[in-house]
Every structure is written in structure tokens, then in C-alpha cells.
Write a structure and sequence with these properties.
The structure holds 3 protein chains of 3 kinds.
Chain A (H helix, E strand, L loop, with lengths): L2 H29 L6 H19 L3 H28 L5 H21 L17 E5 L2 E4 H23 L1 H11 L1 H6 L4 H26 L7 H15 L4 H21 L4 H24 L3 H4 L5
Antiparallel strand pairs in A: 1-2
Helix pairs in contact in A: 1-5, 1-8, 1-9, 1-10, 2-3, 2-4, 2-8, 2-9, 3-4, 3-8, 5-6, 5-8, 6-8, 9-10, 9-11, 10-11
Chain B lengths: L6 E4 L3 H23 L2 H26 L8 H16 L4 H23 L4 H20 L10 E2 L8 H28 L1 H11 L1 H6 L4 H27 L1 E2 L1 H4 L3 H13 L6 H16 L3 H18 L3 H10 L9 E4 L10
Antiparallel strand pairs in B: 1-4, 2-3
Helix pairs in contact in B: 2-6, 2-9, 2-11, 2-12, 3-4, 3-5, 3-9, 4-9, 6-7, 6-9, 7-9, 11-12, 11-14
Chain C lengths: L3 E10 L2 E11 L4 E6 L5 H9 L6 E6 L2 E2 L5 H7 L1 E4 L11 H8 L10 H7 L16 H13 L5 E5 L7 H16 L3 E5 L3 H7 L2 E6 L2 E7 L5 H9 L3 H5 L3
Parallel strand pairs in C: 3-8, 3-9, 6-7, 7-8
Antiparallel strand pairs in C: 1-2, 1-4, 4-5, 9-10
Helix pairs in contact in C: 3-5
Classes of the chains: A mainly alpha, B mainly alpha, C alpha/beta.
Chain lengths: 300, 340, 241
């Protein structure tokens, strides 16, 4: 496989990871909640689109239009019904709640759909495998490019929303200091609910995209959660665009790893994650000692 | 012991003294169990002990040191892997198991230097990624052959009844030793330090608590404990399968047990393990519905019993069975200083 | 009917009782100076009135309605605004964004973004700076401005001069003269006694959570307040309650 192909694959895969991680980043950034059911919610959306498309013979893109608001409502309800209350008992209790949700979702999906892996690829016609040939050695999949574009559009749109709209400002203020936000008239609970709705809607979109470009089954959630988190952490917690960089780095690492040896696909990603953390720690350690030079005793 | 200050400080309450005696009796009964109980019961109790170890370890990490790890299966699995590697290399079975756990604990030392500098969510999922990485690395070992795994054939050198009893006593011993270690640690100044760190790390550091060292101690102890649980599990199941031994479900069970029992209490994890054990036994047959139900139970606890079973009992009755903390008993109303 | 009525309020921090059986009523237009030593309970009282801290007993009524269990953001909608101790600006947002956030509340009134900038001209050139980069005086101005933009009927100011140079405090109070002269209803926690007495119409002194002095500012002498502040000669002070 040519080098450019490899890089292109990795970057485009990164687009998917950024899309997947966006909602996790939002929930963690605003509410400090690690949603252990994040991946499972993506899979839920994929299954919903599958069912609707299957039942009514619609294109998954069309079903998606219906499923997104449903998932947004799910996110909203999850926050108001479960997480809001759990948060009051400390940061650990939402962990238990989202873990419970994760287990419950996976197994209920299994009950409903069985163990078979599914894919939405069969329902989108040629888009599933069509690609644009740049050179004889290097081609770009339309679907992957679409996902990347969606990801950039979403991150961009969210950024603009947070930066320029009144609600966006309210979200940022609440994320930074919910108590003071309440003191200036912001209903923190409502803000959290909106953030959760957006987060779950975006991960639903990611789940459907996963279904189109690959396969999924009821227990695919946790792996997606790990990918999402790796992307967020590699890119730097708290930054939306960082999530894109993180996703791309993860995608690249995995692609390069897989090119060396197919068994190394996942491992490459995990090792990159640990390496990035290590580099960051080293940099902080050096900084605390007055910069890299003095930390290493090089003088100057 | 009225010192005229209007309160006394006590560690042992009447209840805890009585409870202490009860515990001693129970331990004696448990120790004698293989002599009169059936094989099934012994096997089940062994599993229970392993659950208690896991719950207690996760509780020590999260409830006392404030370290939320979603990756303890790393040690659960790697300990078993070391053990099986040693056994295959020719070492005797049981020493291999112990060595495996010790090896995992040794591994946790360099890991702690790295991982403990991570904050909050980064640490949590970082541990999970570490577990996944170890899982995948172990898969590469030709002995393990990817997800196929292998068996600890050395265990077959023992007769099943012997093995059962040995595993039972080892598990009981390990559980008591680990619980004892936590008890001793918590009772002493270390316990106060660790809880101070959990509550406010900066403040603790400012009064001289050695934060990193304290966290490391708990981390390494928890790693050793989870690894012990892992090798004990290997001893009972004999097979080593990466997907099972490195599965994130172990952490999931730990979270469930610790939070259902009552995080940050000593009695909590024991209660949580009993709860999980009971539920597993009664409903485990129902496969998928059981798991879904478990998830719903977790959500319900998060919503309505966030302090866990023991936490609620403690809060409502003030009952403290084990003398881990200090109690302030007001003997008379403290009089206000007169205004001059 | 009083604008604010506090009745036998008890507020705790865990086991510690910070406010004990506090009762008082505030009329529209009054400027109340709340004085007392550190730990006397002044901040806690303000936070309880604003809704940032739930009382364990007693009640608070604002404009005739019982707001005791009302959440803080709803109280802002009704017209109570707190400038918290430590200012608590949103450090990652610009000054203008900090101000705009407060404008989400649907309350019409005198205060607009431009008017607040007029009141505190130092903020004009800093409007796009991150709030975290401001000096102490600028932060206090921004915090007060932020509260004003909710167009409150009752403004609670917690420790305006804390940590600020006298020159800066002078400037702030000068800016606030128009605010004060405009007939606003204020509760002001102020460490500098003289400053507090110069703007207040009424003085409330707290000691260990209780009110030990409550009366019109004109009737107060410095000696009287200082005695109450430190809990001295309570018998003589009782006569003024």
C-alpha cells in the first residue's frame, strides 16, 4: 500500500474518531461526567437506524434524520432523569449509573437483535465501497471523506455555537463554574440537559456512520468508548479541535500499526495513547524545573 | 474518660467489640468449612472470597485514595499470565501462582510512577488502555495463541478435592490478609493521610502529607490484591483466556460491588461482594436478562442509594462495626466562653 | 411591605452553624452595611439570601414571595443579584462575554452593556481581555457590572474592597456613587468601617452568626460598632435592638 494511501486512511479514520469523541468531550468538559455508556449509545442509534431502514425500506440517511432527535431526547432524559441526581452524590456515582446503563443497553440490544453483526453498508448502495482514484496507488473512499467532512462541520459548528450564541456562552460559563452561573441567572440543570442532548445526538451520528463504514453488534460499545476517550485525551481534554487532532493521531497510529502487522492495529493505538501521555508528563515535569534545558542539567 | 472538654474520643464502640468477637467466630467456621461442607459450597465460597478481595481493592483505590481505575483487570490478568508462564516453564503450581501475583505487584511500581501523575478521567481510562495494551501484548505470546489461551496443566498434578481445599484456604487466607492490611493501614496515620488526599489533595500536601508516596502505596497494594484474585481465579478455573482474564467486566463487577456496598467504608465492599455473589447465584442462569437486570440495579442504586447499602446503614443508625475511624462523643453541652 | 424579610434564619456548613436565628427586614432604597469579624457569618448570610446556600431553618421572603427553597437562578429572575466574595468571574471568557452571560435573564431596567461600561470606564479597553487576566480592581468592577446587568432590585455586595489597593477602592466607590444615589437597595459587606458608614443608611453587625447590632447609620458611633464587632459590653448594645 502506498504511503499516501496509508496517511489518507489514517486521517480519514481520524475524522470518524473525532465525530465519535465529540460528545464525550462535551459531556466531560461541561459536566465532568465520564459517560461509560457513550459507545453503547452510538450502537443503539445504529440499531435504530437499521430497524427503521429495514422496516420501511428507507435509506439510512433518511432514517438518521428521524433518529437524531430521538437520541437527543434520550440524552436529555438521561441527564435530567439519572445523571443530574447522581451528580449530587459526588463524581463517582454517575460512573455507576452510566456503567449500569451500558450493561443494560448492551444486553437489551442482544435480546432484541441477537448476536449477529450487522452493517448499514448494504443499505447505502455504492457509497459503501466507491472511492475516488487520485493516482493508481492512492484512492480515497467517498464514505470516509464524507464522514471526515461531517466531523469537521460538526466540530466547527459546535465551536461557533459555543463561541457566539447566548446559549453557547451559558454552556461555557456553567462548564467553568456552575454555582456562579446560577448566581447570574443561568439554570445550570437546563444547560447540562442541553449539553447532554447535543452529546448523545453527535455520538448517535457517529454510530450510524460506523454502521455504514463497518459492522456492529450489541457488544461493540465499549471498544468505541475506548477509541473516543483515547482521541479526547491524545488531543487534550477540553478542546474541541483537540479532539480532531487526537482522532487523527489515533487513526494514523492504528493505520500505520496495521500496515506493519494486522494484529497490531489496536495495540498501536493504545501504545500511542500511553506515549502521548508520557510525553505530556515529561514536558510538565521539565517545565516545573524551569524548562527542558535546565531540567536535563544542560545549563543556559 | 471525661476530660472536662465536653467530649471523648473513642475508637472501639460496644457494637464493634461485640462484632469483633463475632467476626473471629465466623473466620474459624470458614476455616473449618472444607472439612464438613460439600464441594459445591466450598467452590462457591472460594468465588465469594475472590469477589471480596476485588471489591475491597477497588474500594481502597477509589473510596480511600480517590483513584478511580477502570483498568484493574490489567493486574488481574497479568498476574495470571505470569503464573501460567512460570508453571509452563516448570515451576510448581502454587508457588507459581504466588510469584505471578508478586510479579504483577512489581510491575505496578513503574506503572504507578507514570499513571499516578494523571488526573481524574485521564487516570481512569488510562488504566483501561493499559489493561487493553497488556491484553494485546499477552495475545502475541505463542503460548497463548491470541484469544485461544491455554490451561494451567500443572494444576492437574493435584487431586480435585485437594485442589479445591487448597484453593479455598488460599483464597480465605488472601482475603483475610488483604482485609487485615487495609484495616491496619486505615487505622493508623496512613489512613488519615490517604483520606485527606482523597478529599483535597492540595490541602493535604500543604500540611506535609506525602501525596505521591501515599497514593503509590494504595496503588501497589490494590495491584497486588487484584493480581492475587486473578491467580486464585486461575487456580479455580485452570484455564487462562485473555479475553476473560483481561476483560473489563472485572472492573465493572468491582465498581458495582464497591458502590452498592458503600464506597469509602470498610464494611461496604464485603456487603457489596455478598450482594453480588447472591445475585450471581440466584439469577446468573438467566444470562442476558440477568446482565440487563444488573445494569438496572446499578442505575437504581446510583439514583436512590448512592451511599451504598452500608453507607445508608451507617448514616441512619450511626452503626460502626469495625473500629477504623474515630468517634466524637459529646458528653455535655460545650459551654460558650463568657463575654468579658 | 418590606422588600426583603429574613426570619429566624439558620445556615450551616456541615456541622458548623454559621448563621443563627437571624431576623431582619429591609425596605426598598435602604443601603445596609453588614459588618463583623471574619467568620461572623456575613458571606454565608448573603449567599443564603441569593440562593447559593440552603438554610437549615427559617425563611426568606422577597417582594412578598417566599423564596427560601427557590433556586438561585430563579431568584435572579425575581431581582436578587449577588456579587460573590472573590468576584468569581468566568476566567476563560472575555469581560464582554462575562457581562453578556448575565444578560440572558429577562429583566428590563436601567442597566445595559453600554451603561455599565460608562459606570466603569476601565472596562471599556479591557472588554475583549480574558477575565482571568484582569487586575483586582478591574475584576471587581466587572463582577459588579455583571450583577447590575441582571437589573436587580436588591444588590448584594460581598467584600468589595477585599484585596484591593486603597486607590482602587476609592475609584470603585466613586463609580458606585451614581448607583447608590439612584435609590438602589443594597446590602454591602465591607471591611473598612468608615467606608461602610459613609454610604450606608443602616448598619447590621454580626458576631458568631448572630446579629448583635441593628440600627440606622446616623445613630451609630464608631465606638459602638467596634464594641459590638468584638462582642464587648453587650449589655449596653442590647438597648439598640
Amino acid at each position: 500500500m502506498s504511503f499516501f494511501n496509508l496517511v489518507a486512511q489514517g486521517v480519514l479514520l481520524g475524522g470518524y474518531y473525532a465525530l465519535l469523541a465529540c460528545g464525550l468531550s462535551l459531556m466531560f468538559g461541561v459536566m465532568r461526567i465520564i459517560n461509560l455508556a457513550h459507545g453503547d449509545l452510538a450502537i443503539l442509534a445504529a440499531f435504530l437506524v437499521f430497524s427503521i431502514s429495514d422496516a420501511f425500506g428507507l435509506s439510512p440517511f433518511l432514517s438518521l434524520v428521524g433518529v437524531l432527535p430521538i437520541m437527543a431526547a434520550v440524552g436529555w432524559a438521561l441527564q435530567r432523569g439519572v445523571l443530574e441526581r447522581s451528580l449530587r452524590s459526588g463524581m463517582l456515582v454517575p460512573l455507576l449509573a452510566t456503567f449500569g446503563l451500558s450493561i443494560a443497553l448492551e444486553n437489551l440490544l442482544f435480546e432484541a437483535y441477537g448476536a449477529d453483526t450487522r452493517s448499514l453498508g448494504g443499505m447505502i448502495g455504492d457509497l459503501a465501497f466507491d472511492s475516488y482514484e487520485v493516482t493508481s496507488q492512492f484512492s480515497v473512499s467517498y464514505l470516509a471523506a464524507l464522514i471526515f467532512a461531517l466531523s469537521v462541520a460538526l466540530l466547527g459548528g459546535l465551536s461557533i455555537f459555543l463561541k457566539t450564541t447566548s446559549l453557547g456562552r451559558a454552556i461555557r460559563a456553567t462548564a467553568e463554574d456552575p454555582d456562579t452561573a446560577e448566581l447570574v441567572g443561568i439554570d445550570a440543570r437546563a444547560v447540562y440537559a442541553v449539553a447532554a442532548a447535543i452529546a448523545v445526538a453527535t455520538v448517535a451520528l457517529a454510530g450510524v456512520m460506523l454502521g455504514m463504514r463497518a459492522t456492529f453488534d450489541p457488544y461493540s460499545g465499549p471498544m468505541q468508548l475506548i477509541f473516543a476517550f483515547e482521541a479526547v485525551v491524545i488531543g487534550g481534554i477540553g478542546s474541541l479541535w483537540g479532539t480532531l487532532t487526537g482522532g487523527i493521531m489515533l487513526g494514523l497510529a492504528q493505520s500505520i500499526g496495521a500496515a506493519i502487522n494486522p494484529k497490531w492495529f489496536l495495540l498501536a493505538g493504545h501504545l500511542t495513547f500511553l506515549a502521548v501521555l508520557g510525553i505530556r508528563l515529561f514536558r510538565d515535569w521539565a517545565r516545573a524545573r524551569g524548562g527542558l534545558r535546565s531540567a536535563l542539567g544542560l545549563g543556559g | 474518660m471525661n476530660n472536662g472538654l465536653g467530649f471523648t474520643v473513642e475508637r472501639w464502640t460496644r457494637e464493634s467489640a461485640a462484632f469483633g468477637i463475632a467476626v473471629a467466630l465466623v473466620v474459624l467456621a470458614l476455616a473449618a468449612a472444607p472439612l464438613f461442607a460439600g464441594a459445591d459450597a466450598v467452590d462457591k465460597l472460594t468465588t465469594l472470597f475472590i469477589y471480596v478481595i476485588l471489591a475491597a481493592m477497588w474500594n481502597a483505590l477509589a473510596g480511600y485514595a480517590g483513584l478511580v481505575s477502570v483498568g484493574q483487570q490489567a493486574f488481574f490478568g497479568i498476574g495470571a499470565y505470569f503464573a501460567i508462564r512460570l508453571a509452563v516453564a516448570g515451576f510448581p503450581a502454587y508457588p507459581s501462582l504466588l510469584a505471578g501475583a508478586v510479579g504483577a505487584a512489581l510491575l505496578s511500581i513503574p506503572v504507578s510512577f507514570f499513571m499516578l501523575r494523571l488526573r481524574g478521567g485521564e487516570f481512569s481510562i488510562g488504566m483501561w488502555v493499559l489493561a487493553e495494551a497488556l491484553h494485546l501484548l499477552v495475545n502475541l505470546d505463542p503460548l497463548i495463541q491470541g484469544e485461544t489461551g491455554t490451561s494451567m496443566i500443572a494444576m492437574n498434578a493435584f487431586a480435585p478435592a485437594q485442589r479445591l481445599a487448597a484453593n479455598y484456604w488460599l483464597s480465605l487466607g488472601a482475603m483475610l490478609a488483604l482485609l487485615g492490611a487495609i484495616f491496619v493501614l486505615l487505622r493508623g496515620p496512613f489512613g488519615a493521610s490517604v483520606q485527606a488526599i482523597r478529599d483535597d489533595e492540595e490541602a493535604a500536601a500543604s500540611i506535609g502529607v506525602k501525596v505521591i508516596a501515599a497514593k503509590q502505596t494504595v496503588f501497589i497494594l490494590a495491584a497486588f490484591g487484584c493480581a492475587l484474585a486473578g491467580v486464585l481465579w486461575l487456580a479455580t478455573s485452570i484455564t487462562f483466556q485473555p479475553k476473560t482474564n483481561f476483560g473489563v467486566q472485572w472492573t465493572a463487577y468491582m465498581i458495582l460491588m464497591a458502590l452498592v456496598g458503600g464506597l469509602g467504608t470498610f464494611e461496604g465492599p464485603i456487603l457489596g461482594a455478598l450482594f453480588f455473589f447472591f445475585v450471581q447465584n440466584e439469577f446468573g442462569e438467566n444470562g442476558v436478562w440477568y446482565m440487563a437486570g444488573l445494569g438496572v440495579v446499578a442505575i437504581l442504586f446510583a439514583l436512590f442509594l448512592p451511599r451504598g447499602l452500608w453507607g445508608e446503614i451507617e448514616a441512619r443508625t450511626g452503626l460502626r462495626l469495625l473500629p477504623v475511624g474515630y468517634r466524637l462523643r459529646l458528653t455535655e453541652r460545650t459551654r460558650a466562653r463568657p463575654v468579658m | 411591605m418590606s422588600l426583603l424579610s429574613v426570619d429566624r434564619l439558620d445556615v450551616r456548613h456541615g456541622l458548623l452553624q454559621a448563621v443563627r436565628e437571624v431576623s431582619f427586614a429591609l425596605e426598598e432604597g435602604e443601603v445596609l452595611a453588614l459588618v463583623g469579624a471574619n467568620g461572623a457569618g456575613k458571606s454565608t448570610l448573603l449567599r443564603a439570601i441569593a440562593g447559593a446556600h440552603q438554610p437549615s431553618a427559617g425563611s426568606i421572603a422577597f417582594d412578598g414571595a417566599d423564596v427560601t427553597s427557590m433556586r438561585a437562578h430563579k431568584r435572579v429572575a425575581r431581582g436578587i443579584a449577588l456579587v460573590p466574595e472573590g468576584r468569581r468571574l468566568f476566567g476563560d471568557m472575555s469581560v464582554e462575554e462575562n457581562l453578556r452571560v448575565a444578560m440572558r435573564v429577562d429583566r428590563r431596567g436601567h442597566w445595559t452593556l453600554d451603561r455599565v461600561m460608562e459606570l466603569f470606564p476601565m472596562l471599556i479597553e479591557r472588554r475583549n481581555s480574558l477575565a482571568g487576566n484582569l487586575s483586582g480592581g478591574e475584576r471587581q468592577a466587572a463582577a459588579i457590572g455583571r450583577a447590575l446587568l441582571t437589573n436587580p432590585r436588591l444588590l448584594l455586595l460581598d467584600e468589595v474592597s477585599l484585596g484591593l489597593a486603597p486607590v482602587v477602592v476609592e475609584q470603585l466607590y466613586k463609580s458606585m456613587t451614581s448607583l447608590l444615589e439612584g435609590g438602589a437597595t443594597l446590602i454591602l459587606v465591607e471591611q473598612e468601617l468608615n467606608r461602610a458608614l459613609s454610604v450606608a443608611t443602616r448598619v447590621l453587625c454580626m458576631l458568631e452568626g448572630k446579629i448583635v447590632l441593628d440600627g440606622p447609620a446616623k445613630a451609630m458611633s464608631r465606638e459602638l460598632i467596634v464594641d459590638a464587632y468584638f462582642g464587648l459590653r453587650r449589655a449596653a448594645v442590647q438597648g439598640l435592638r
